[in-house]
Amino acid sequence: MTEYDAILLAGFGGPEGQDDVIPFLRNVTRGRGIPENRLEAVAVHYRHFGGVSPINDQNRVLQIALQAELDARGIALPVIWGNRNWAPYLKDTISEAHDAGQDRLLAIATSAYSSYSGCRQYREDFAAALTDTNLEGVVHIDKVRQFFDHPGFVAPFVTGVQQGLADVAAQLPGIDLATEVEVLFSTHSIPMTDANKSGPPERGFGEGGAYAAQHMAVAQTVMKGHTTPWQLVYQSRSGPPTMPWLEPDINDAIALLPARGIRAVVIVPLGFVSDHMEVMWDLDNEAMESSEKHGIFAVRVPTPGVSHEFVSGLIDLVEERLNDTPNEERKSVTDLGPWYDVCRPGCCENVRFGFKPAVAGMVP
Prior knowledge:
Layout: E1 6-11, H1 21-29, H2 36-47, H3 55-72, E2 79-83, H4 90-99, E3 104-109, H5 116-132, E4 140-143, H6 151-171, E5 181-188, H7 192-196, H8 209-222, E6 230-235, H9 250-256, E7 264-268, H10 277-293, E8 297-300, H11 308-323
Parallel strand pairs: 1-2, 1-3, 3-4, 5-6, 5-7, 7-8
Helix pairs in contact: 1-2, 3-11, 4-5, 6-11, 9-10
């Protein structure tokens, strides 16, 4: 059994006012040489919503929900919260935890899948925070496994797709769900170089790496029992045109559907734990506009948010680590998992930056 002093909810962070938008985007893109005019273009998305990203409020609610579930199970651990790119910053949260005598932390990152930005970068930021606070060797941070195929994460999407198809049938009487509707599972696109490096090299996932394979496996699980066609699509690409990213883009995919006789789509934000800015802008705004443009009826499935299944599932992951639960007793709904507690050597390399110091995993 492993003892911890606190649960660290690790978030991406987001601006909470118009004056925060550009400084926040500079934090996100630091070291990548992104020009200011590109930041201004992305800032439009945030300014459309008053300069406020929903993500911080979502994490505040998630923090409360996680604490309530821990209390209900009799687990006497506080939930603390820190972000990678905006206040409360990880280094401040970790420093305050140390001052409170909380030196053994178990982190839950708000990202379900394996990739550089979804896992390893969190681990690098933990290491950087410990260095910045002179707490290396004093504060120890572990991390729960990637939870892409834990039933607590998957169940809300199963329910959402069932409801989405029912909504389509109600709004378009007589529509054939097997030939005239398509389910679009959408996730954040990433550079092909990063995708191909996602997951342990020895697993040999091939094109798209573990990142694409995990999404495909979850989508297949969600669609069990349905005859409606589906595909995995991507969104939120931000790199230069010369750099290959995962495709197809959701808007390009929608444009091709009418030629196949598709009259409606159910959009599933499979790569997101809550209604991030990418969900609100890229799906609720751009994808809906694309659907309308091409004469397609569209509904969007909810993210897990703070649903009981999701919150309970995250605390299941905590209990796995507290109790050293054997692998065969851990919950998983695909053949890919359950994933690793400790990231394997060479996992999720960023080929542009190379390996940086990271905690909660094997070296490098």
